[in-house]
């Protein structure tokens, strides 16, 4: 079975599908944490608690940066001395483009497609290449002029 778009706002009802999604996304978030640590030289401490199996998954980017240090960093007395960002599930839309969720963005594109389709079926033709990214002809001309300028250098 191929990839399907899932609704990220609702819990996955099928237990097997939910567990498969959990395993894949857990692996993905740990991979992203490792990449962020390596590329940006950041200390990262990530904790995931599997409620179903009562298992704690912990990732730390450095053996010196552990739960004891993180506990001190989130101490209310120290919060005034350091910048502290805290996020919850309620902040989901903040991490989507333009404050919209992925589903809302997809609906916008679908609406645009339906409007363009109805315009062409009503006898009005759309100008070829009148898209957000420019016409295919313009892109082809840019590529040709770029390759010509590269050959002169």
Radius of gyration: 24 Å
Considering the protein shown, what is the CATH homologous superfamily of the domain at 15-78? Transcription factor, MADS-box
Oligomer classification? single chain
Q: Low-confidence parts, pLDDT < 50 over ≥5 residues?
A: 125-137, 145-153
Q: At CATH's second level, what is the architecture of the domain at 15-78?
A: 3-Layer(aba) Sandwich
Series of secondary-structure elements, N-terminal to C-terminal: HEEHHHH
Major sheet details: 2 strands, antiparallel
State the distance separating the first and last CA atoms. Answer: 50 Å
Order of strands, main sheet, comes to 1-2
The 3D shape can be described as extended
Derived from helix and strand composition plus strand pairing, the structural class reads mainly alpha
Summarize the amount of helix as a percent range.
40-55%
Q: How confident overall, as mean pLDDT? A: 75
CATH overall fold name of the domain at 15-78: SRF-like
Short description:
Among the domains are: 64 residues, SRF-like, CATH 3.40.1810.10; 38 residues. The protein has five helices and two strands; from the N terminus they run αββαααα.
Task: Please provide a written account of the structure.
The protein is mainly α. Among the domains are: 15-78, 3-Layer(aba) Sandwich (SRF-like), CATH 3.40.1810; 87-124. Helix content is 48%, strand content 8%. It has helices at residues 15-40, 67-73, 76-79, 102-121, 136-152; strands spanning 45-50, 55-60.
Features:
single chain; 153 residues; mainly alpha; SRF-like; two-stranded antiparallel sheet; 48% helix; disordered C terminus
């Amino acid at each position: 079975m191929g990839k399907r778009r899932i609704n990220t706002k609702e819990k996955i009802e099928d237990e097997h599908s939910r567990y498969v999604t959990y395993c894949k996304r857990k692996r993905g978030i740990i991979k992203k944490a490792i990449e962020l640590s390596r590329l940006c030289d950041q200390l990262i401490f990530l904790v995931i608690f599997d409620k179903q199996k009562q298992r704690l998954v912990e990732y730390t980017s450095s053996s010196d940066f552990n739960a004891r240090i993180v506990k001190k960093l989130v101490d209310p007395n120290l919060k005034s001395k350091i910048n502290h960002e805290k996020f919850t599930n309620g902040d989901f839309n903040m991490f989507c483009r333009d404050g919209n969720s992925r589903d809302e963005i997809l609906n916008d594109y679908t609406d645009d497609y339906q409007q363009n389709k109805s315009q062409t079926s009503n006898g009005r033709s759309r100008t070829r290449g009148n898209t957000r990214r420019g016409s295919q002809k313009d892109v082809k001309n840019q590529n040709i002029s770029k390759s010509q300028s590269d050959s002169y250098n």
